[in-house]
């Protein structure tokens, strides 16, 4: 049985902790009790990490594609070997069912192997020029990367943040969420154990605002990769602007799901209910606003309520649990507020609507329907186990509702009309669109949003290119 590990930062390959540093209590979301104390960086730690990252970049930018691929493949193999330990640690600190944590490890394995192949596909191009002249466009690694990962995918988020810079030939300082540090450390350790030079990837933790101001205030950092809320993303984009640091921003969403009269409602329900309560709804691409055409509205709403009631809520480490606790104390409080506000404004509560017990951060799988547009939950990302199910008449109204919000991350639709499928693919304002499917990602596919959901992509060739810059060389 894996125990929760003791915690540290990794700076220049060294495990750094103690020394009178401030600490943060990492909490078990099942009980609310402290699992371990996490050391937080002081300014000297961050300066040291920056100096090491600068050296790391000088080393790694000279590495061959084969060397980078070898490290990524080696780390992927170690993740397979360590899958069970890493998954248990993630479930202990974040709460999600063990099966979901195991999948997260395997998503990283797929991504690292894809990126390993991508190392040899970072082609430039030669331009057509008169005889005696030569012009080429080449891709070069951007420089040291500051990467900030949130707590909802404790394994997958650090995997994305580390994998792309390593494949591109950059160095990286990772600050993963203080709530889920051990999973991030386990992923970094796989890279180091696979032979990544210790200067190339480091992990710090701290007071988020202090760390981001310090790192983004340094001329050493050339790229910021952030996943988290739109509010924090906008704040960090402004900090990055002062040093003209390039950014990839993977921010909030408010996933619309359009369910048409001509769809396979049973299949839509089976997919949507599982998708909604996965990781307690704490997923940026979570299906959130169910925009249902009127003939199938009642069937869909009632089916969703049944699906919510069938969830098995419990400790993610126990067999049979389909939904664990929420990840931290802030989430159930936020969901309580959203549901109370929606009810006040006239929404109907079909299932759930309150916390479970008085230990840890459990919340009932919830469904609300006929929710007015001025309810807060119709406009802000709920990030919790609540489905909003509302009836609409026409395709035009449904598309307008899907595009109403400033978010544009994932959008889903269910229809068997091929012409409509094409119209939806054209008209939905989102970085990722699922039609009769909620599988909208993959190691080879760009993951990212438009509008307030951010810019740039992770995964796919785009994920590595986001850590690179072009240089045009013209020879006379
Ligand atoms: P938050 O907005 O304070 O934090 C979101 C993430 O950003 C956390 O990982 C946090 O450590 C980090 N962060 C916060 N301030 C930072 C700073 N100044 N510099 C660097 N990193 C910083 O709130 P929260 O309570 O952790 O999450 C609340 C909301 O954030 C959710 O409701 C959801 O909308 C959003 N969120 C989105 C994702 C995603 O995958 N896009 C993940 C987690 C949270």
UniProtKB/TrEMBL annotation:
InterPro entries: Ald_DH/histidinol_DH, Ald_DH_C, Ald_DH_N, Aldehyde_DH_dom, Aldehyde_DH_Superfamily. Pfam families: Aldedh. Residues 22-473 form the Aldehyde dehydrogenase domain. GO terms for molecular function: succinate-semialdehyde dehydrogenase (NAD+) activity. GO terms for biological process: gamma-aminobutyric acid catabolic process. This is NAD-dependent succinate-semialdehyde dehydrogenase. SUPFAM superfamilies: ALDH-like (SSF53720). The keyword Oxidoreductase applies. Coiled coil: none annotated. Belongs to the aldehyde dehydrogenase family. Keywords: Oxidoreductase.
């Amino acid at each position: 049985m894996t125990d929760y590990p003791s915690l540290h930062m990794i700076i220049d390959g060294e495990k750094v902790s103690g020394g009178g540093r401030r600490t943060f209590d990492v909490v078990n979301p099942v009980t609310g009790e402290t699992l371990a104390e996490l050391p937080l960086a002081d300014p000297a730690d961050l300066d040291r990490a920056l100096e090491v990252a600068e050296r790391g970049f000088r080393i790694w930018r000279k590495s061959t594609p084969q060397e980078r691929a070898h490290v990524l493949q080696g780390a992927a193999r170690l993740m397979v070997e360590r899958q069970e330990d890493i998954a248990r640690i993630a479930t202990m600190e974040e709460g999600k069912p063990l099966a979901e944590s195991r999948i997260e490890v395997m998503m990283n394995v797929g991504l690292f192997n894809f990126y390993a192949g991508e190392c040899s596909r970072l082609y430039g191009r030669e331009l057509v020029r008169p005889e005696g002249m030569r012009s080429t466009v080449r891709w070069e690694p951007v420089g040291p990367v500051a990467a900030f990962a949130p707590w909802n995918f404790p394994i997958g988020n650090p995997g994305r943040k580390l994998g792309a810079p390593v494949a591109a030939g950059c160095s990286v300082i990772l600050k993963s969420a203080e709530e889920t540090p051990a999973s991030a450390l386990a992923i970094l350790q796989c890279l180091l154990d696979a032979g990544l030079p210790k200067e190339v990837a480091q992990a710090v933790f701290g007071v988020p605002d202090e760390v981001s101001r310090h790192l983004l205030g340094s001329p050493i950092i050339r790229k910021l990769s952030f996943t988290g809320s739109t509010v924090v993303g906008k704040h960090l984009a402004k900090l990055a602007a002062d040093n003209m640091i390039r950014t990839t921003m993977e921010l909030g969403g408010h996933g619309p799901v359009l369910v048409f009269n001509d769809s396979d409602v049973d299949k839509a329900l089976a997919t949507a209910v599982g998708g909604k309560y996965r990781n307690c709804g704490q997923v940026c691409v979570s299906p959130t606003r169910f925009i249902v055409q009127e003939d199938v509205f009642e069937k869909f709403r009632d089916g969703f309520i049944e699906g919510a009631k069938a969830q098995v809520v419990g400790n993610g480490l126990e067999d049979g649990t389909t939904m664990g606790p929420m990840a931290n104390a802030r989430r159930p409080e936020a969901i309580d507020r959203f549901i109370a506000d929606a009810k006040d404004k006239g929404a109907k509560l079909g299932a759930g609507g309150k916390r479970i017990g008085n230990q840890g951060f459990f919340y009932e799988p919830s469904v609300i329907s006929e929710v007015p547009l001025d309810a807060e939950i119709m406009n802000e990302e709920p990030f919790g186990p609540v489905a909003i199910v509302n009836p609409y008449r026409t395709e035009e109204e449904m598309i307008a509702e899907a595009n109403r919000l400033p978010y544009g991350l994932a959008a889903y639709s269910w229809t068997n009309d091929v012409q409509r499928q094409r119209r939806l693919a054209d008209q939905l304002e989102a970085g990722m669109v699922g039609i009769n499917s909620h599988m909208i990602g993959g190691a080879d596919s760009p993951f990212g949003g438009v509008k307030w959901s951010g810019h740039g992509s992770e995964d796919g060739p785009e994920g590595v290119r986001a850590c690179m810059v072009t240089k045009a060389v013209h020879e006379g």
